[in-house]
Write a structure and sequence with these properties.
Blueprint: E1 2-12, E2 18-28, H1 43-50, E3 58-63, E4 66-67, H2 74-87
Antiparallel strand pairs: 1-2, 1-3, 3-4
Length: 89
């Protein structure tokens, strides 16, 4: 099962600054994934988009099948629940 899916995620802020452009990746359940890049590369923006804290300008994100652009916080709750479950192992 895919735990996280990002398809063509794009974020352009009101100021006109483009933080992400057509970012695509997927992470399988149980997979360890590193999110590396220089300052200003869009790492935090991508995580906020996937957590439902920001709305994408284009593209979609899903966390455990939940659309991250709908129902802000539901995908963040799924991530927290998964993190707690893994910590107990």
């Amino acid at each position: 099962m895919r735990a996280v899916v990002a398809e063509n995620l794009t974020k352009i802020y009101a100021s006109g600054k483009q933080a992400l452009e057509d970012v695509c990746f997927s992470i399988d359940e149980g997979e360890i994934f590193g999110f590396l890049g220089p300052n200003g590369a869009g790492k935090t923006t991508a995580v906020k988009l996937l957590n439902g804290m920001l709305t994408p300008s284009a593209g979609t994100g899903q966390v455990f099948g939940l659309d991250s652009s709908r129902g802000a916080g539901k995908s963040a709750h799924a991530v927290r629940r998964c993190h707690r479950a893994r910590a107990d192992v």
